[in-house]
Amino acid sequence: PLAPRHCTDIICCVIFIVVILGYIALGVVAWVHGDPRKVIYPTDSYGQFCGQRDTVNENKTILFYFNILKCASPAVLINLQCPTTQLCVSKCPDRFATYIDVQASYRYRTDQWNYYKQFCKPGFNNPRKSVAQVIRDEDCPSMIIPSRPFLKRCFPDFSTKNGVLTVGNQTTFKDGNGKTRNVTDLREAANGINNVLDARSVGMKIFEDYAISWYWILIGLFIAMILSLLFLVLLRFTAGVLFWIFIFGVIGIIGYGIWHCYWEYDHLKGIPGSDLTVYDIGFQTDFKVYLQLRQTWLAFMIILCGVEVIIILMLIFLRNRIRIAIALLKEGSRAIGYIMSTLFYPIVTFLLIAICISYWAVTAVFLATSGEPVYKVMANQTLCKYANQTCDPETFNTTNVTKLCPGAQCTFAFYGGESLYHKYIFIFQLANAFVFLWLVNFAIALGQCTLAGAFASYYWAYRKPADIPLWPLFSSFGRAIRYHTGSLAFGALILAIVQLIRVILEYLDHKLKGTHNSFTRFLLCCLKCCFWCLEKFLKFINRNAYIMIAIYGKNFCTSAKEAFFLLMRNVVRVAVLDKVTDFLLFLGKILVAGGVGVLAFFFFTQRIPIFAQEVPTLNYYWVPLLTVIIGSYLVAHGFFSVYAMCVDTLFLCFCEDLERNDGSTAKPYFMSASLHRILGKKKLSPKKA
How far from chain centre, in Å, is Cα 434? Predict the structure, then answer.
């Protein structure tokens, strides 16, 4: 790794730099044209934002629909394409009322008129105007119904009473046109809205749980980090003992889970309602209900038993290979012991990926909000030939449309545009997604190549640790950036293209879910499977190609070819050592996550008497519990990924060492004596002093 080098894949490096500059330019253009307020604030029929500061609508944060019956579905409401007047209001209606009734009683019930007119157009205060003209000009809604705000929009306050759909505890309402209608006329909107509202209720409770328990979640993740670091430090000295402890620890944790599930299953025996099935009770927002069913615990117990049996069988059949892998891990732990800084490099990769995600998300939002307000003619008469045509609100009253179509209005419809920039926004979004994938894969490739270079400098040191260069991690990072940016970008580009194709296939599959064309669905399924396999294969090739780049400094294609054929010549060793090592590291992640998870479970369920008073009151204790378990797994994965890269690098270096050297005085092996004994080679020749 310390041999003189030259720049590789220069053309790809230049293209990569140009693309980054173009990506920055795209972000600047999106920032100039975009307006995130279009996402944050709803927009009324006049193109004004509801709730925006320093405007007439500053205190009117909610969007109100004059005639919600004209809206076919909740999706239409959210997309602001409902063919009715929309106004910004400070609060939603809380009662039933019609304009006809309010107008008839405004002389002696001024309070009703004052309440009703806040849902009329700003400035309208003429209750003497005929009802027909008011409805035609849409000065006021023909009716108001009890509503509640959701997504900053007034939706009918649906509820069920004895299994009957109601609005404001009523099953009928007056539509303002002299008819009494049933609330089931809103059923199409009600079904979708109620599901979303239930999800919102669950989401609010989850958010509250996070707000209360975030401190304890961080403590759990810190414990996971300490356990992961402690494991990696001890692995250098007691790899075999620790891994067997880990293996039996995982078996013990799963065994405890099986016993706990059986205890809960047996404890619920005879309790009324516990024999119901999940199908019988349907979907419930209170997930504790499912824990009162015997079927739930029986399913958990069966799943855990299956996992337990699979792990035990794998240990029985792979016991000899596990011993070999443990010995290789000892060599890896020794390498990490000499280069401890590598344990913290995943933080650099995480920061780079976080920057990429943030830039992509911000650019996507600004691109999505780059449209200009588009206004369309909204007419009550179905035969109006100008209906749904674009219009200009400033000149609309001077046109003949209002004469030919009495009551027609020029109202805001959506955001769009006809300029060249607006026509290619979809292309810009695709480019944004593609460059994002390219940059993320480059950040991962840079991390793999940097770590491989550091560990390769350990392996190829003739006398360890005396010949290991100073600051091997930083030196490797500098070599990767200075000489091999083009090669890393080339590998990331190939992977990004395949991933973009997979994203497009997923999008097409989502769009075609409602179709009944079996052949198209089958073809898409085959393509998705093929590109998934291709992505996995490319990740494997790229990973080993980056190791070869770190060792020899050749271009990407040459390194990928040499790595592939080197692995094919040692395919048995790859299967025995590399994959078994991955399996053992995975068990280590499971044990760290499971151990911290069990501790978190006892804590959040108040089963640790010392900390019982410190446990926060939660809606769902599984929210912080799952967060701690998943977070602990990711923390362990970050540290263990360094270890996996170390083992892969040492293994590839070992294979290369066997092919280039023969153990003689002229061509001595660079591998350590312990690794030499593990793989059954002849005794090492004496090394030169």
Answer: 17
